[in-house]
Design brief:
The complex is a heterodimer of chains A (116) and B (110).
Chain A (H helix, E strand, L loop, with lengths): L3 E4 L2 E4 L5 E7 L6 E7 L6 E7 L5 E2 L8 E7 L2 E6 L8 E7 L9 E2 L3 E5 L1
Parallel strand pairs in A: 2-11
Antiparallel strand pairs in A: 1-3, 3-8, 4-5, 4-9, 5-6, 7-8, 9-10, 9-11
Chain B lengths: L3 E3 L4 E4 L4 E7 L7 E6 L5 E7 L4 E3 L2 E6 L4 E6 L8 E8 L6 E3 L3 E6 L1
The chains are: A mainly beta (116), B mainly beta (110).
């Protein structure tokens, strides 16, 4: 099956700092990747769609200037949480569909962000 | 109303038991339905897609009721390893993106 990795798996940072999370498709190319956020005991919420070669599209209510997305290549998308605050503490998960945006999504292992 | 709603549980069942639970979705135009499994503090993993006629994968059976807009999952002969949170996932009809339920927690005890 398709493999998606994320790095780092866990990060603890001080309030006000920026944190970059990487999502890589290891054995396929992905023109589209998705970024989700999950708070404890809640559902995954789609934050944005990362598009290789073009701007990301953000879901309603997600600040694009706070959550910067860069889809640098067909195997790498990065999410940068800028000026992180404690309320940004969450589980961030990316996914990638091998066969295009409508294909089955394979998820990365997630990044647990804790902002002190 | 949430796009996808699930009974959070938990469903506590003994090994070997059968457990079943549903989820409801709000948009009647949704076309694709899935059950994902999520273990504690891990990423979701696809358990099975749900087809109109219902489908089975080993001990797991999924059903779709379009008229009532609900999906069900039944687990037969529960194993300890089935303990997890099961996420009901539905596609958004206007695009290919997915809406997730908050999950139903199942705990299988020895």
């Amino acid at each position: 099956g398709a493999v998606v990795s994320q790095h780092p798996s866990r990060v603890i940072c001080k309030s006000g700092t920026s944190v970059k999370i990487e999502c890589r498709s290891l054995d396929f190319q992905a023109t589209t990747m998705f970024w989700y956020r999950q708070f404890p005991k809640q559902s995954l919420m789609l934050m944005a769609t990362s598009n290789e070669g073009s701007k990301a599209t953000y879901e309603q209510g997600v600040e694009k200037d706070k959550f910067l997305i860069n889809h640098a290549s067909l195997t790498l998308s990065t999410l940068t949480v800028t000026s992180a605050h404690p309320e940004d503490s969450s589980f961030y998960i990316c996914s990638a569909p091998p066969g295009g945006p409508s294909d089955t999504q394979y998820f990365g292992p997630g990044t647990r962000l804790t902002v002190l | 109303r949430k796009e996808v709603e699930q009974d959070p549980g938990p469903f506590n069942v003994p090994e070997g038991a059968t457990v079943a639970f549903n989820c409801t979705y709000s948009n009647s135009a949704s076309q694709s339905f899935f059950w994902y499994r999520q273990d504690c503090r891990k990423e979701p993993k696809l358990l099975m897609s749900v087809y109109s006629s219902g489908n089975e994968d080993g001990r797991f059976t999924a059903q779709l009721n379009r008229a009532s807009q609900y999906i069900s999952l039944l687990i037969r002969d529960s194993k300890l390893s089935d303990s997890a949170t099961y996420l009901c996932v539905v596609n958004r009809p206007n695009d290919y993106k997915l809406s997730f339920g908050a999950g139903t927690t199942v705990t299988v005890r020895a």
